[in-house]
Amino acid sequence: MNYNLYLITDKKSLGDKDLINTIELAIKGGVTMIQLREKSISTKDYIQLALKVKKVTDYYDIPLIINDRVDVAMAVCAKGVHLGLDDMPIPLARKILDPDMVIGASACSVEEARSFEQQGADYLGVGAVFPTFTKSNTDQVTISNLELICQSIEIPVVAIGGIHNENVDQLQMTGISGIAVASGILSKKDIVSAARILSNSFPTL
Ligand code: TZP
Ligand code: MG
Question: For residue 135, which ligand has an atom nearest its CA?
Answer without folding.
Answer: 1
